[in-house]
Prior knowledge:
Elements: H1 18-31, H2 34-39, E1 44-48, H3 53-59, E2 69-72, E3 91-95, H4 96-105, H5 110-126, H6 130-144
Amino acid sequence: MIEKRAVSDWQTIAAPSLEDFERMAASALARLPDTFRALCRNVVIQVDDFPTEEVLDEMGAESPFELLGLFAGVGLAQDAAVAETGRLPNHVYLYRRPILDYWAEHEEALGALITHVLVHEIGHHFGMSDEDMERIEALADRADH
């Protein structure tokens, strides 16, 4: 539920910065179950305003607002098949502007949305089903209360 604020409260509030998003992502990650967090200790979480043109082309996206996040790297299912020499670390990208745009159009708390995107993208790394990811999000939600 989105908290109601007095009009005067909005006079000084700015859109969350890249650094704010990094802090929210770190907080979301900290609330995830220990077993899930332990598995993703080598995944780099990076926040950018938008995906690169190369990513948009690769994903067949018509607009930079189509992607809220992206897992880039070698998933666990393919891990043994790819040599570690010269391999870059796995990344989860969170795209601030598309997330803010989505948030503005839906009745979901920004922190919950960031958690959802983070879990969904990390879930790709583990080859999880949507049901598995929903359970992990529910556990993170319970950690908030």
